[in-house]
Amino acid sequence: MSFLELAKSRYSVRKYEGRPVEPEKLEALLEAAKLAPTGCDNQPLHIYVLQSPEARAKAAKCTRCTFGAPLVFLICYDTNTSWKREYDGYRCGEFDASIVVTHLALEATDLGLGTCIVAWFDPAETRQQFALPDNLVPLAFLPCGYPAAEPAPRHFERKAVSEFTTIL
Ligand SMILES: Cc1cc2nc3c(=O)[nH]c(=O)nc-3n(C[C@H](O)[C@H](O)[C@H](O)COP(=O)(O)O)c2cc1C
Question: Where are the alpha helices (DSSP H) in the chain?
């Protein structure tokens, strides 16, 4: 599959089969996360792999968007170790973690799995449920599993390329 075919195949899955994600697929997903580039290669990531019913129940207390997935990732970044731009002090942990989320979502698609990137969660509840240290910022939940139903792809509703590009 070409990259464009892979990107077109990914869509937000909001209904999952109950069957678990195989350990070798989980391993491949985490390998894809590991390969994501980060600012200055600082790798300020921490990923919680929520598989047990208890862990997924905790996730469901933080967001209504776990969609019954058999596996949920919680992607965080470390504010102590993310690369800092000297000009203005900007730290790129959120940037880094976003790329990790993208790698996970695209690798999942390649493995025949579905995901949905979830930013609609309660950060304070998330900190509490997972006892996050102060330096870890939760960026996204990512439910993952085998899609239960065919989607209505939304790619075709995207803006035209000319609407978001400026060619100089
Ligand atoms: C940063 C970000 C946050 C998102 N948060 C949520 C969310 O909290 N709940 C949800 O159901 N979908 C969420 N989505 C999924 C988007 O709604 C979805 O990607 C968009 O509508 C395009 O559809 P597609 O993913 O099927 O191409 C999020 C996507 C992104 C990139």
Answer: 3-9, 23-34, 53-62, 93-110, 123-129
